[in-house]
Write a structure and sequence with these properties.
- Two copies of one chain form a homodimer.
- In chain A, helix 5 (about 110-120) packs parallel to helix 6 (about 140-155).
- By secondary structure, chain A is α/β, with parallel strands linked by helices.
- The longest helix of chain A is centred in the C-terminal third of the chain and has 22 residues, at about 265-289.
- Chain A has an eight-stranded parallel barrel, surrounded by eight helices.
- Chain A contains eleven helices and eight strands.
- Chains A and B meet through helix 3, helix 4, strand 3, helix 5 and helix 6 of A and helix 3, helix 4, strand 3, helix 5 and helix 6 of B.
Chain lengths: ~290, ~290
């Protein structure tokens, strides 16, 4: 059995003094012109520009981060060309010593979740797994999550289950009050705890109140904390996530890092500078926790 | 504006006397040997076998069905090669006059759902949309669904929102009792109704009690009714879905049709026969409703 996601995260965090995850949400309309050189405007060309851009960002931020999160939606916009680009970007990030999180928010009935688990978390023929972790959606219940847990037990991966998300509409279902007075997301949190240690939780950094409560309900789970930066989440509010130590959470920022500048020749430096700044801010929170 | 999904479904259902949707969940371990001829066992070869198999199935069932549902998970198992196969299978099904449903159960925060909507529901550069409809997951709330609704308004598509799913674990979250005595899935159903006419609902055919209640809560929505056949759902129990007419629902079967036989030379005929049988059974229910 491979070492667990948590063990690898603990080691990387200690080595780099970082809990930073850089979100690769490639938005072509925000790319510097130079990545489009010679690629044209068809899906294959857009996918090539995405790949160049993301490789450039990974190169720039690798020293400051412990993980990257590939937002599959943006890659899928370029169809199968985009998914091929995501596969190559993930492989490059792993070579650079980063944990790779596929942010796909997948899940289906059990026999279909099996296929998603095989696609993203299991070793592929002649290749390692697509990713070290996958984000998954709990609406279909425990039997839809089990295949991901099984795959993670076998290959040392992690399933980050959506618990309390960073968007305003996240409250619509997640904050519904149950007849026992608790919230839907708290029920999901208990389900996640039952899958420890192969399940983590997505807790939006825009929901500081939820971070503390989530830590009570899931004492050991690794939290993926997106929404810092462009979405308004504050790093300082995330301290409860790190009560169990540095492997308690990954502070994830996307737009504010990768699209810090769209100037030719400057965008990588700007991304590196923002990643360095966030790394320090997040590590201060870890040390204070 | 293109004609709506519902209008196209009404027309096709009337022409073919069918509300059958064939689920393309390609499981290579159940393929007849002949589709593997010369493809090898790497992802590109597996994807080619999937494509051959699915094209063969579409060819066999096109006269009996009004729609096919591509289960993206199985295609994604073969990585970007698999997604390319799905794109070609979808295009072929559309040429054969079928509605194409991408069963991806996608959704994310709004700006990311925009990307999924662009990937699966919006016209692509030099190509029509990947699909006429996409299945989406409601856990992230209304603002995660709006981008799909917007794309559907523009291109005549439909977002099938997961409401009450066919798997046993579907009850874990969906049947939680809220403080007002209703269930989580009923709340989701009301949200779906608020997105009419561009949102439909996934209601598992294994949950006959839910079908009637769902129809009360969503008087006009088109239901996608998976779980007939291998999962044990009974067609006769689906009558309430068709109260508004034939466009009230799509009866979806996957394994029992596409994997009816794995014998070389016989699998297409077996799939056609099972599709014809189900078409008739489902149409009898439509006429009795």
């Amino acid at each position: 059995v491979a070492s667990s996601f948590r063990e690898r995260l603990e080691q990387l965090a200690a080595e780099r003094k970082s809990v930073l995850c850089v979100g690769l949400d490639p938005r072509p309309e925000l790319f510097p012109d130079e990545v489009f050189h010679g690629v044209g405007d068809r899906p294959a060309g857009v996918a090539r520009a995405m790949e160049r851009f993301c490789i450039g960002i990974v190169d720039a931020v690798a020293a400051h981060a412990v993980a990257v999160k590939l937002q599959l939606a943006f890659f899928e916009q370029a169809g199968h060309h985009g998914l091929a680009a995501a596969e190559r970007v993930g492989a490059f990030a792993r070579e650079r010593g980063l944990l790779v999180i596929a942010d796909g928010k997948r899940a289906d009935i059990g026999s279909t979740s099996d296929a998603y688990a095989a696609a993203y978390l299991a070793p592929r023929r002649h290749a390692p797994p697509f990713a070290d972790a996958l984000t998954v959606n709990p609406y279909l219940g425990a039997d839809s999550l089990e295949p991901f847990a099984d795959a993670c037990r076998a290959s040392g991966g992690l399933a980050f289950v959506l618990v309390r998300t960073s968007n305003p509409g996240g409250a619509d279902i997640q904050e519904l009050e149950l007849e026992d007075g608790s919230r839907v997301w708290e029920h999901v949190a208990r389900m996640v705890a039952s899958f420890a240690p192969v399940a983590g939780a997505v807790i939006g950094a825009t929901q500081p109140g939820a971070v503390r409560r989530a830590r009570e309900l899931m004492p050991e789970a690794t939290f993926l904390l997106p929404g810092v930066g462009a979405q308004g989440g504050e790093v300082a509010a995330l301290a409860p996530a790190f009560a169990p130590g540095p492997a308690g959470g990954l502070v994830s920022a996307s737009r504010s890092v990768i699209h810090a500048s769209r100037d030719n020749g400057r965008w990588q430096g700007a991304a590196a500078a923002e990643a360095a700044r966030l790394r320090e801010a997040a590590w201060a929170v870890v040390e204070s926790a």
